[in-house]
Write a structure and sequence with these properties.
eight-stranded mixed β-sheet; about 40% helix; about 300 residues; globular; Rossmann fold; 13 helices
Amino acid sequence: MVTAIKDMPRDEIVMPGNSACAGCPATAALRIVGKAFGPNAVCLMTPSCTVASIGLLPKASFNYPILNITFASAGSSAAGAVAAIESLSAQGKMEGEPPLVFTWIGDGGTYDIGFQALSAAAERNDNFIHICYNNEAYSNTGVQRSGATPRFASTTTTPSGKLEEKKNMPLLMLEHNIPYVATASLAYPGDMYDKLVKAKSIRGFRYIEIFAPCYPGWKFASKDMIHLSRMAVTTGSWMLFEAEAGKIKFSGPTARLVEGKSKPSSLEEYFSLQGRFKGLMKSTNKEELIQEARAKLDTNMEFMKKRAVF
């Protein structure tokens, strides 16, 4: 049974005074992370919207020790932090339970700039949790395209709409043969919380990706953040699953879509709520392009369904 919000711990990582946008998905997700991980944790962050919202040093609005590191070094820096903690613990120089080490990184620092170090950490099976909050662009620096940006989406570097398909980063991490991979959505906080708790209980490299609609970058009303998080799942644009030792298990509405117990919701409606797809929605061949997008999502879902058999 999925954990209800009222049954989650009262621990809070996000404190008053941060400068995040109203309705920011990153800070909302971090609240759930804090409840799942508890107070004994260390967080590493590369440049991102979250780093920009911490507040003015020497104080911070997040109730964890935070290490701000270089964009490309999430995997290597976290591996170093783990090695240092384990060494101190083995020498008897650290009292109590060693803290959990996790990274909180955007799609730019995961899909693109940080992928080399991240892949190496996964190959070594370093003992930390990498969390990618995916807002499908470099939102902190002006909403440029990233490897996570979907086809047709307008950004400052793809003003007419991106031509290429986005990466399937959770699948790439799954193929690293790591102990645990999971995806999550803010529209299903209990599912997210349970996956975070499970990841905490597993040793080795663990990867969790949270879908994070960014209203300034995607150009929608901030009040619709959860609605768009839900629509991404129900349209099949974002799949919810977890994989232990490579074995995939679908969750939430994704499980019903994969099993054929429900039909995807309207992709056209999902696109129409986001200003970044304005060019697509005004295109003379809009219907054809939306059908192409629908076919691509169906193909991806069928592939993941077959991948889950193994």
